[in-house]
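Provenance and format

Records in this collection were gathered into a single text stream. Each protein contributes a sequence line and a token line. The two records reproduced below are adjacent in the stream.
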Amino acid sequence: MSVSPRCLCCVKYLMFVFNLIFWLGGCGLFGVGVWLSFTQAEFSSLPLSFPSLSAANLLLVAGGITMVTGFLGCLGALKEQRCLLFMFFVILLLLVLTEVILVVVIHIFHDKLDSKAKNELKEGMKIYNSEPGLKNSWDNVQKMFKCCGVTDKMDWYVVLNGTLPSSCCSVGADPCVDGWGEPCYQKARQWLLKNISSVLVFGVCIGVVQILALVFSMLMYCQILCAEKDLD
């Protein structure tokens, strides 16, 4: 079956446009990841299981992979090379499958993941007095979110022999007797959900673009294959 040059050209530029949007979306995700990393720089010594830190790293990785994949798709569309298009299709398909599996795993095991993250943070609290960087990070977190401990202020009683760090109370309260009532893990999670809701909507839009890019890349691949057979 012969392929119309006009049809191939149309698919080519549609493929390019969708991949350009895909690449720009990757830049956006990466940019948000960088912003989140900078805003959380004061907490950098905490374990990566801390909600805002784990989100920042996830966005940086997802944005970086999306940018590379989008660039590959644009290049494959402009050059009309089956090898590049097939490579793009495979990488993007694996990326989409990974995203779906990740969402399903987080949805099913979110309680266990939360529990594991909290335990890691509690373990890190044990070196509060011996690790200046970690001490500074915990103090900054508690001052910023007006919170105390991972799940409650009782977490500190185990670590500091029945006392609370001064950062658990308002400025000037030293020694700290009755710390903030809200847990830091929950407060950080609420802050993250409040500030990243637009990113989640943006992520869904990127997902739609990914599906369309998969369709157009395979369509273009098949049309180039047909065109090469017609030339032979």
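Adjacent record:
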Amino acid sequence: MAAAAGGAGGGGGGSAALGDSGAIDYSVHEAWNEATNVYLLVVLASLALLVYARRNKRRIMRIFTLPPAAETPPEPNFYDSMKKIRLRQQLEMYSIARKYEQQQQPPKQTESVQLSVE
């Protein structure tokens, strides 16, 4: 019985040692599973981004092309402002000419008005 107990004890000790290595193996397997799960998530996320990029290529390109479009308006704005300045000058000259004509014309206009009243 003692031999059986020793054998059982030896077997138990052997299984305990095996159990310890089994625990180590289990932790290695658990770590491997977690790592592969992380890699799987990374791969799936990359594939999802790739599919999204292919479907929305124009939207993505529009996002990246906006800053140059935002930087280019200063040049047209410069020319637009020059056109506005020129137009303003023309309007001022026109208004000055109209005032000058009105200053030259009033006596004739009042006479014609007086004539029409009489």
